[in-house]
């Protein structure tokens, strides 16, 4: 059997001799060093340096594989020789290469205005470029980013200017009133705490059974990020800034949870560039726990939005504008054989521009995967399917699939159309008739047809339930027409 090789050009594995069949990279070919780095170098036991992608001015861009998250992306850093040459140019007073580079640097700094920043953000969005982090790697200051398609030299030059002018002292402004409703939590990190020397905690914005969510300032990229800290309150407590396990018999459960937390990061990392799913930027260790740096979506959850409307039902067309983007996100997950497992109004965000995002993959699992320990912890009774209860009760995963998310989505649609949560699985099983009925005060047009669709989506028997998001979507489209 031929030896399997890892391509350092595209990070795909292949068997046999010669060039990579995917990108043409040749494993036997010798590559020299660039800016002191060489192909195959590994930094921080995490970043595997691939082939050189591009050289622009004093910067180099490499393909890099993140062994912790299990995904490839790109790394840019600037030659360390630049600063020394500038000093030499100043000292000698010559119009040499050092002076030229200094002028270019000053010009770049002058261009990084608020307007230029907006233009760069727009260009990055059009080119499907995701900025992940700026951090020290291999003794150099590096910009990590992902791009869906190759980009031109101009955009790479703009990224070089961004890297050159981001010195870790950037500040961001928080919209008025954003912090007012946030409650202080004793177990949360204090405001102002610095994580990994790059992220400053601005506020605690939420606490769950297994994690604490913070709003942080990414000081290098001058943006807000959501930072999720692994903190299982049942097993851990705060000792200063550190997270410690409460009792020795809880250590195994704590470590299993930590691994599951890392799996969440890996799940999210696979879906960069996918619409309607919040991006993950980085995962890092600190304070004896793990942190996930994620895209911050300023806006409101659908659950809170419903409360602000005093539970007034949405019209079907309004509900569809919420449900259809979630369906798109779920179909992407299901194609990768991933079940979200926690679809609910609280995990769907409406951004300030009206965009809808599906968040929180903490309960996500591969359809054939196993995470029984957390089954009960993630169950939301109003939206959980019968097979999730069985998994939680028996501790053996089985029977979950795309239809599990269909059930939760049906329950959410019921809530949006009626203003009331549907009866949960336990309540329905205790009823003489398990069939769903709409509230008496519901004034929904074509109510009978909607009730029929909802019953198909929320059938207790998997064999009778709608089996895919696509089939559910067709049913909604037909009724909306």
Could you characterize the architecture of this molecule?
It is globular and about 75 Å long. The strands form 6 sheets. It has a 6-stranded antiparallel beta sheet with strand order 3-4-5-6-8-7. A 6-stranded antiparallel beta sheet has the order 9-10-11-12-16-15, with helices on one face. Helix content is 33%, strand content 24%. Helix 1 (81-92) packs across helix 2 and helix 7 runs antiparallel to helix 13 (469-480). The chain has helices at 81-92, 97-111, 114-126, 153-165, 251-269, 302-308, 316-335, 375-378, 386-394, 402-418, 425-430, 447-457, 469-480, and strands at 4-6, 13-15, 42-43, 47-56, 59-66, 71-78, 129-137, 140-147, 194-195, 199-207, 211-218, 223-230, 236-239, 242-245, 280-286, 289-295, 299-301, 338-339, 348-351, 356-358, 365-366. Residues 81-95, 100-113, 173-184 and 368-376 have low confidence and may be disordered. By secondary structure, the chain is of the alpha+beta class.
**Helical region count?**
13
Strand order of the largest sheet: 3-4-5-6-8-7
Weakly predicted, low-confidence segments: 81-95, 100-113, 173-184, 368-376
- Shape descriptor: globular
Measured as a percent range, the helix fraction is 25-40%
Care to count the β-strands? 21
Mean of residue pLDDT values: 82
**What composes the largest sheet?**
6 strands, antiparallel
Distance between the termini: 57 Å
How much strand content do the residues show? 15-25%
Computed CA radius of gyration, to the nearest angstrom: 25 Å
Decide which structural class fits the backbone: alpha+beta
């Amino acid at each position: 059997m031929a030896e399997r090789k890892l391509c350092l050009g595209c990070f795909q594995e292949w068997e046999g001799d010669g060039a990579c069949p995917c990108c043409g990279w040749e494993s036997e070919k010798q590559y020299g060093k660039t800016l002191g780095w060489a192909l195959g170098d590994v930094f921080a036991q995490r970043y595997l340096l691939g082939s050189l992608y591009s050289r622009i001015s004093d910067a180099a861009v490499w393909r890099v594989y993140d062994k912790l998250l299990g995904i490839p992306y790109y790394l840019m850093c600037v030659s360390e020789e630049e600063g020394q040459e500038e000093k030499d140019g100043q000292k000698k007073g010559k119009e040499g290469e050092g002076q030229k580079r200094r002028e270019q640097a000053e010009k770049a700094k002058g261009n990084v205005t608020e307007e230029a920043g907006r233009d760069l953000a727009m260009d990055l969005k059009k080119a499907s470029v995701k900025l992940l982090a700026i951090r020290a790697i291999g003794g150099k200051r590096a910009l990590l980013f992902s791009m869906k398609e190759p980009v031109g030299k101009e955009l790479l030059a703009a990224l070089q200017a961004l890297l050159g002018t981001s010195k870790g002292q950037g500040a961001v402004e928080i919209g008025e009133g954003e912090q007012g409703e946030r409650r202080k939590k004793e177990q949360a990190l204090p405001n102002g705490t610095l994580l990994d020397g790059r992220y400053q905690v601005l506020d605690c914005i939420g606490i769950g059974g297994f994690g604490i969510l913070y709003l942080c300032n990414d000081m290098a990229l001058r943006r807000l990020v959501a930072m999720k800290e692994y903190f299982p309150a049942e097993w851990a407590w705060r000792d200063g800034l550190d997270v410690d396990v409460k009792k020795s018999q809880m250590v195994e459960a704590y470590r299993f949870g930590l691994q599951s937390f890392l799996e969440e990061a890996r799940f999210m990392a696979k879906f960069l560039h996918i619409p309607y799913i919040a991006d993950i930027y980085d995962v890092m260790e600190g304070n004896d726990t793990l942190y996930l740096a994620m895209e911050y979506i300023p806006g409101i959850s659908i659950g809170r939005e419903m409360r602000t409307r005093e539970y007034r039902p949405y019209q079907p067309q309004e509900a569809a504008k919420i449900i259809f983007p979630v369906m798109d996100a779920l179909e992407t997950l299901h194609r990768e054989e991933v079940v979200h497992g926690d679809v609910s109004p609280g995990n769907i965000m409406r951004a300030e521009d009206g965009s809808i995002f599906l968040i929180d993959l903490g309960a996500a699992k591969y359809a054939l995967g196993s995470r029984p320990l957390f089954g009960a912890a993630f169950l939301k009774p109003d939206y959980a399917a019968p097979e999730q209860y069985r998994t939680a009760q028996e501790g053996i995963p089985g029977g979950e699939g795309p239809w599990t998310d269909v059930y939760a989505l049906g329950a959410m649609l019921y809530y949006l159309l009626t203003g009331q949560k549907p009866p949960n699985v336990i309540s329905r099983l205790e009823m003489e008739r398990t069939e769903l009925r709409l509230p008496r005060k519901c004034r929904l047009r074509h109510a009978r047809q909607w009730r029929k669709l909802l019953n198909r989506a929320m059938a207790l028997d998997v064999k009778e339930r709608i089996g895919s998001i696509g089939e559910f979507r067709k049913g909604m489209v037909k009724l909306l027409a």
